[in-house]
Amino acid sequence: MLEVAKMAVEAAVKAGADYADARMGTDLTESLTVRNQEMEGIDRSESTGVGIRVLVDGRWGFASTARVSDEEIARAAALSVDVAKAAHRLPGDPVTLAAIEPAVASWRSRMTEDPFTISLEEKVALLMEATRRAQQVKGVTFAEGGLDFFRRSTWFASSEGAAIDQVTTHSGGGLEVVAVAEGDMQRRSFPNSFRGHIKAAGWEHIRTLELIEQAERIAREAVDLLSAPECPSTITTLVLDSGQVGLQIHESIGHPIELDRVLGMEEAYAGSSWLKADDRGTVRYGSPLVSITADAALPGGLGSFGYDDEGVPAQRVPVIVDGVFENFLTNRETAPVVDQTSNGTSRADGWSHLPLIRMTNVSIEPRQGTLAEIIGDTKDGIFMATNQSWSIDDKRINFQFGCEIAWEIEKGKLTRLYKHPNYTGITPEFWGSCDAIGGREAWTLWGTPNCGKGQPGQVARVGHGASPARFRDVQVGVRG
């Protein structure tokens, strides 16, 4: 397969490319869903092809094909060069790539048990029993369990001499329980919303999720929410579970630090950023407790790899240090704008798309304490858990998040249950109000498998490590 990528690069150079790279790739997916102890669906797919990217006089061209014959690769390579030549009519400065040392390497994500070799009978039995346990709770309307598996094999070559093969395997699962009564519907998800908890791992990760063991507890919470009062509208102290902190990082930190957004290259589809290109080292993004790191070498992360889709090695990048913004996420094209080399965040949604700047594993550094200790240290406030909805403006500064469940905190204890909880804020003010972050024992590396960006739209798999955290003077209320 690496020879196919090399052949595509040679064809592109022969057709007139000044620079060329090619990604030969195969994506394999499997998804299972059981609802109320009945098989809802089993989806399997496999996709193979090659994408060819070129520069001609500083303009990009790209073409891809699912047919990998010599003739078809030559045709796609010539087309990519023609696209680059046509792009000369567009405004803008020529592209200059940051220098890198071409790598010749192989890399594999960690995995103990290959999920694609586990029998369907075992997978289905797990989901059947989890939904059965949930349905035992009186008042449950339906219980749904899901498992998702993904493998990407990539062979990358460039005209600079890079030759890299990589394989990543992702596994995840989750449970969702819904209770309905008198025009109200309440949902509880476990271990997290949006299909659960996904890691760069094998079937061994599924064994740790405890979907069966936690099913009845989650079901009881869904039923209890039906009779719970709505979250009061007030300004108070807010404690978030680690999963919600992870999504907060994703939307209000991860996206605005993508340098293509800052430079206006992403503005048309998903907005830009409140940051400016010269803000490094000067802008206070959060309180001194808040340190954020983008780490593409973190074991288990959906944003982990050996090399990005430009052949740049995985790196650990300090983004926010003690509350001060320090670094953007960059690729080889944007890094020279801020006088840097690429920090390796260029990735594509498979072989048929151009690479974009994407988050890796953007995580908050742990501080001290467990969730119970943070709550015990809180005189009064609200604890919210498990995301249900979000909204954020096109500068990634004004936001609103809704959660599935909340509890009142009184004198360091969780008391009254609340439904429809919501909180709002302004990004630097919200992170500036953070006065407690849990320690390593409370830190979880969550996976986000559905991060959207680009035109045409692409979906990326990214990670967020987070501990529960506390924020002061936050506006909370009822989700609309």
Could you characterize the architecture of this molecule?
By secondary structure, the chain is an alpha+beta fold. The protein folds into two domains: 225 residues, PmbA/TldD superfamily (PmbA/TldD fold), CATH 3.30.2290; 243 residues, no CATH class. It is 21% helix and 40% strand. It contains ten helices and 23 strands. Strands 1, 2, 3, 4, 5, 6, 7 and 8 form an eight-stranded mixed β-sheet that branches. A five-stranded mixed beta barrel has the order 9-16-17-19-23. A four-stranded antiparallel β-sheet has the order 12-11-10-15. The chain starts with a helix and ends with a strand.
List keywords for this structure.
480 residues, alpha+beta, PmbA/TldD fold, 2 domains, eight-stranded mixed sheet, five-stranded mixed β-barrel, 40% strand
C-alpha Rg, in Å? 23 Å
How far is the first residue's CA from the last residue's CA?
A: 51 Å
Tell me the structural class: alpha+beta
- Describe the main β-sheet briefly: 8 strands, mixed
The count of domains is 2
Beta fraction of the residues? 35-45%
Low-confidence segments: none
Percent range for helical residues?
A: 10-25%
Shape: globular
Let me know the average pLDDT.
Answer: 96
Output the number of helix runs.
10
| Total beta-strand segments | 23
Secondary structure layout:
Layout: H1 2-14, E1 19-35, E2 38-56, E3 59-65, H2 70-86, E4 104-108, H3 120-135, E5 140-158, E6 163-181, E7 184-190, E8 197-199, H4 203-208, H5 211-226, E9 234-240, H6 242-254, H7 259-262, H8 267-270, E10 292-295, E11 316-321, E12 324-325, E13 346-347, E14 356-357, E15 362-364, H9 371-376, E16 380-392, E17 398-410, E18 413-418, E19 421-426, H10 427-432, E20 434-437, E21 444-453, E22 458-466, E23 469-478
Helix pairs in contact: 1-2, 3-5
